Structure formats: structure tokens, C-alpha cells
Known about the structure:
Blueprint: E1 3-4, H1 6-13, H2 17-26, E2 33-36, E3 39-43, H3 44-56
Antiparallel strand pairs: 1-3, 2-3
Organism: Pseudoalteromonas neustonica
Pfam families: Phage_AlpA
InterPro entries: AlpA (IPR010260), Prophage_regulatory_activator (IPR052931)
Amino acid sequence: MRFIKLKTVMQKTSLGHSSIYKFIAEGTFPKQVSLGAKSVAWLESEVDDWIEEKVRGRG
Length: 59
């Protein structure tokens, strides 16, 4: 497992930070993991799964 930061999540998904947090609030995007007082990251595998789900659902 590997943690990725917001910048990398944005690059992988082509989403802006406000869209990512909106989708998290809606329950349609993986939640971030707290790494400390002011640091969060996402599990890369969960973000990759979300991307694959979007690809599968396009047809």
C-alpha cells in the first residue's frame, strides 16, 4: 500500500481539490487518511479503484 498526497490525487483523477472534497462529502470518493495534525493522504489503491469504476461505468 502507498499513500499519495492531494496533488497526486488531482493529477491521477484530473479533478480539482474542491471537486475531490465534494465527492468525499457525497460518499462517492475515497476518504483521506490522517497522517498527523495537519497532514492527510489517500491510499493509491483506493483512488485507482475509483478511476477503474469510472471507466467501467462509461458505457
